[in-house]
Amino acid sequence: MANNFFGITDIGRQRDNNEDTFIAQKSGDGNFIIACVIDGVGGYVGGEVAADIARECILEQLSYIAGDVVPLLVNTINIANQKIYDKKKTDKQLENMACVLTLAVIDIQNNQFYYAHVGDTRLYLLRDHTLIKISKDHSFVGFLEDSGRLTEEAAMDHPKRNEINKALGFNPEISKDPDFVETGHSPFLPGDTLLVCSDGLTDLVDKSLITAILTGSDSIEEKGKRLIDAANSKGGKDNVTVALVQNDKAPRQHSATRPATAVAKVTDEIVDPLAQPKLPDGPATIPVRQKSNRGSMIVLFILLALALAGFLWQFWLNYQLKQNPVKTYVTHVKVKNAQEIKLQDTINKLKGKTLILSAADYPEPIVLTDSLHIDGDSLYIKAKGNILFKRDSLYHGPALTLAATCKFIVLDSVAFEGFKITITTHNDALVLKHVVFNNCEAPVQTSYSFPANKQVSGRLFGGMFKIDSLPGSKNQESGIKKK
């Protein structure tokens, strides 16, 4: 799979700086290819800063990809949006910065790709020499083009073609709008090519020329460079960026098989289709052997007997079902969300003994569909800001499960809501600091290990935990402040 992805960006012919950036590389675990084009919104100070923030956030969040990919992409874009918005608040010169992006994650091994998109960068799929536009432009002119009200040529020349209605960095609460981020996934078959590009390409180069370049015999690097050159040759009015990914597996081809029947001999004789067929040489009449009806009667009798037996069998089965109705059970399949996948992976790969949970990374409650497992001997989990763990409506297990090997686990300033059993632990491994339990039936369930065949004496002291009361803190009453 070497050389099956490539990215390139160019300042163009009329701009003084490049507000575009891109990603074209494998994920940290090596199982996926990330192709992304990010365009700093033109005309605003700091567009390139916003693009760089988004790029770094994507690489950080997608270093490990597992589970349901689309929610992970949406969560990554939400985090990038929040980081851009937070940066704007700290620097007055950047208060108008924003960016748009198209992010694709490709699973070559399983022939699939997933994408998330905001703005007027674009995603195309080339299959069988046909270029298909996958993403939709989040702009008025883009809507007119996608709905067929404007031709491609008219949209490219429209005076408002660069006015967008969605971007990252303007609204800190895009996660509350389920339609803000456009998402999808599709098969990525052997021979397919994905193109992610900025509007610096599609505002100047039409679909037919892009298709001609992508279907050529050049290498993927040369195709990327030819797309840049095509935009610059038409004026290069904007920064131009492309990212390409090819599924370079050999397409499956099925060889044709010859029919088993003999091939008729070709002659020069003209055949009349209305003529009676020729009989082979021989007697003028062909004797016909009369068959006895006895065999037919036997077959008919056997068929009737089988039909009667089948009817009686079905009648007996229906009777048994009425007497002993079959019970059906519905099994709910757990599908972990991106937040808990990310958090469990962080716990598993943590090299130190301290884990900081920041509200900037988890602005919304962390909804758990399964228990988070802690296996190390010691770990300090500290929350900065409001970190709330909530139970998914279909989940009835604990929020945290501490292994028997744990010796010293500290939870500091986190909150839990709605769990029947919140934390399961062993012996005296758990330490709580300013932890809140809202509507939790059993906050902590502890198992103690004792040696076999030994007498045990002692007492479990309920006073090992105390109720904290911090002056002026409303969170001690409600668990966490809802935004």
Automatic annotation (TrEMBL):
Pfam families: PP2C_2. It comes from the Bacteria. Keywords: Membrane, Transmembrane, Transmembrane helix. The chain crosses the membrane at residues 298-317. Residues 5-247 form the PPM-type phosphatase domain. InterPro entries: PPM-type-like_dom_sf, PPM-type_phosphatase-like_dom. Gene3D superfamilies: PPM-type phosphatase domain (3.60.40.10). This is Serine/threonine protein phosphatase PrpC. It comes from Mucilaginibacter lappiensis.
